[in-house]
Write a structure and sequence with these properties.
globular; 4-stranded antiparallel β-sheet; 6-stranded mixed β-sheet; mainly beta; S-adenosyl-L-methionine-dependent methyltransferases; disordered N terminus
């Protein structure tokens, strides 16, 4: 991999005290053979004009090393191997607070499994300060055989929850408040569609769906319904085992249900409106029962083939309507959002399990991006299904 990098720079080692530097490394697109990874460093705007570089060492370095540079005050510690690193990129920091770089990974199987650490360093020449990022990225090149129906989702931040006024047509609930910033710190993949009956049958040798058979044409491509949270969890575990055995599972990832935050992040796809379509939902946009915006009955009366309606900006279909989609989180049913910013939230206590998005029997207000619903892990009906993510393992 050294052919991708620019020459090594030098640092002096010493036992120096080091505080936090206020810089954060992020992976915005995964590292896959034949594809382009994206990594970044977030920094205070006051660092504008500093000279920066990304330091790269392989294999990954297990520890940290305090550093001194004669004539400079050093903030933070080296998290790459100080005796074996190269500078991957260099330049001047702009006023945006984030600097990102692409890494084109060769489509060469000899690189599969290559692992390294990546950490930023920046230099304020006028004040003689040197800053190391407060974390490093421990990167690993995985295969490029992710299923075609899985959509890559970058890491990022969004505003979770509903800030609309009470009452018609949205009828927001206390459980959707307060609106708060959520950061999804690692990239992942999510199903372009809800899990279909054919996919569920192929993994479990069972199809519990109500809407199958001759009365429901092309039922194999309709979402699986009448599953419990426990059923969905078992499906994800079985799929993870199958894909791992086939050598198609990136290190540190698993197939699982999305967290509630991951689901809303994907549903919104960068939007802040009540639906990813905008602030209204009409019958032509999703499979649901009744639109409060047009006072129209939209009821088809059953699930329909996945992908029958327009996708959101990230290429995901049926995030509103068709079937409710189970999430990983547990929930007590209350107004339990935190008031401040949070990273990678995942609730692991509470009697019920969350589901999102509304279904074919839902009114438009329950199909909103922010709407939350839930029931016991054994609950099921013909309006309930799920989609999967290929995402970091959660303990």
């Amino acid at each position: 991999m050294n052919k991708l990098l620019v020459p090594t720079c030098a640092l002096a080692l010493a036992a120096a005290a080091a505080g936090q530097a206020g810089r954060t490394m992020n992976l915005l697109a995964p590292v896959l053979l034949g594809q382009t990874a994206v990594f970044s460093m977030s920094y205070p705007v006051a660092a504008t004009g500093n000279f920066y570089a990304f330091l790269w060492s392989s294999p990954p370095f297990a520890g940290v090393t305090p550093i001194t540079v004669p004539g400079f005050t050093v903030h933070g510690v080296a998290r790459v191997d100080p005796n074996n690193f190269v500078s991957a990129h260099a330049g001047l920091l702009g006023p945006s607070g984030t600097v990102a770089h692409n890494l084109a990974v060769p489509n060469d199987p000899s690189f599969l499994g290559y692992a390294w650490d990546l950490q930023s360093v920046d230099l304020a020449i006028a004040s003689s300060d040197l800053f190391f990022a407060d974390n490093e990225l421990q990167l690993y090149i995985s295969g490029n055989n992710i299923p075609a129906n899985m959509v890559p989702i970058p890491a990022g931040s969004f505003l979770m929850g509903a800030n609309t006024m009470t009452g018609a047509p949205y009828y927001p609930l206390a459980s959707e408040r307060p609106v708060h910033q959520v950061t999804i710190s690692r990239p992942f993949w999510i199903g372009k569609y809800e899990v279909t009956q054919a996919e569920y049958l192929a993994v479990t040798n069972h199809n519990p769906s109500h809407f199958q058979g001759a009365s429901y044409p092309n039922s194999g491509n309709r979402p699986v319904d009448s599953v419990t949270w426990n059923d969905a969890m078992a499906y994800c575990a079985a799929l993870t085992t199958l894909e791992a055995a086939a050598g198609r599972l990136p290190a540190g990832y698993q197939y699982r249900l999305p967290t509630e935050a991951e689901w809303e992040y994907c549903c919104r796809a960068g939007t802040t409106t009540e639906y990813h379509y905008g602030n209204t939902l009409v019958c032509a946009q999703a499979n649901f029962w009744y639109s409060n915006h047009t006072t129209s009955h939209c009821l088809v009366g059953n699930t329909i083939v996945v992908g029958s309606y327009t996708a959101n900006a990230w290429g995901l279909h049926d995030m509103h309507g068709n079937v409710w989609e189970l999430c990983l989180d547990w929930w007590n049913g209350g107004a339990n959002y935190p008031a401040g910013p949070i990273t990678d939230p995942y609730v692991t206590s509470g009697p019920i399990r969350v589901f999102r998005g509304g279904g074919w029997l839902g009114v438009s207000n329950v199909c909103r991006s922010a709407f939350r619903e839930g029931n016991f892990p054994t609950y099921t009906n013909d309006n309930l299904g799920f989609r999967v993510v290929l995402a970091p393992v959660l303990l």
